């Protein structure tokens, strides 16, 4: 199936970001893609105002998501991204949303909050407590992860054992020493160890690295963007997936049980 990565720098004003998303959705649809993955926290951002994203959070029936739902009505394109949704006084959840034909077909609240490298996402954001659902797209099953989740192999393995063929990772990967190396190593590892496709889409701009990439089930990077805004396409092949899992049957050979979230008991 044909997929697209829409990499851009999130602006301070939600209307500008909505216009960028609608444009990317239109271009992806016109190019024949069935899946478009956008970055993390695309509603509003300002590197000089860390609390802006939560202050500007909107509910699911707010104007930002309403505009994107309307834009998704044409065709069968599935669009996946994350945004902040209010969740109590001066707090929010970082919710990953899947849209198709005007409807929200899946939602996942980010499990692992970015309390690392001198940053503290949990200061303003509440963590999710459920394993993400799988989304059917173009004959493949898609598992949802968000940014910092990639550092926790249990989630990727759980989604794969639940039946995921593709993992998507909307992100806002912050620049820093070795951070681009971490990004590529982790994305490649999660795809290879689970013999699945991984679509990792990063925000670009002054603070974040961009560098969106698609990794195939044998750890080969088949498409990537640089540090500037871009719309990148690739083909995911069911035959490549089946061949990788036949030649490298790590899922069948594993000796450990299926990972379980603490909140599941």
UniProtKB/TrEMBL annotation:
The CN hydrolase domain, residue ranges: 1-238
Family annotation (Pfam families): CN_hydrolase
Gene3D superfamilies in alphabetical order: Carbon-nitrogen hydrolase
Family membership noted in the UniProt record: Belongs to the carbon-nitrogen hydrolase superfamily. NIT1/NIT2 family.
Protein's name in the database: Deaminated glutathione amidase
Organism of derivation: Mixta tenebrionis
């Amino acid at each position: 199936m044909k997929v697209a990565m829409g990499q851009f720098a999130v602006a301070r004003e939600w209307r500008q970001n909505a216009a960028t998303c609608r444009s990317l959705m239109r271009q992806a649809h016109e190019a024949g893609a069935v899946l478009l993955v956008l970055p993390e926290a695309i509603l509003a951002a300002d590197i000089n105002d860390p609390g802006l994203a939560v202050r500007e959070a909107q509910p699911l029936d707010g104007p930002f998501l309403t505009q994107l739902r309307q834009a998704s009505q044409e065709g069968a394109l599935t669009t996946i991204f994350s945004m902040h949704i209010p969740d109590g006084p001066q707090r929010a959840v970082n919710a990953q949303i899947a849209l198709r034909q005007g409807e929200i077909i899946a939602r996942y609240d980010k499990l692992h909050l970015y309390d690392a490298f001198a940053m503290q996402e949990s200061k303003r954001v509440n963590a999710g407590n459920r394993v993400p659902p799988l989304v059917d797209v173009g004959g493949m099953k898609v598992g949802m992860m968000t940014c910092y989740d990639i550092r926790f192999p249990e989630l990727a393995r759980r989604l794969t054992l639940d039946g995921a063929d593709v993992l998507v990772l909307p992100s806002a990967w912050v620049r820093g020493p070795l951070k681009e190396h971490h990004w590529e190593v982790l994305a490649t590892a999660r795809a290879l160890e689970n013999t699945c496709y991984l679509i990792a889409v990063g925000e670009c701009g002054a603070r974040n690295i961009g560098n969106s990439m698609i990794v195939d089930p044998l750890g080969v990077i088949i498409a990537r963007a640089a540090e500037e805004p871009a719309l990148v396409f690739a083909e995911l092949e069911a035959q490549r997936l089946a061949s990788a899992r036949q030649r490298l049957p790590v899922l069948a050979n594993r000796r450990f049980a299926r990972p379980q979230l603490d909140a599941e008991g």
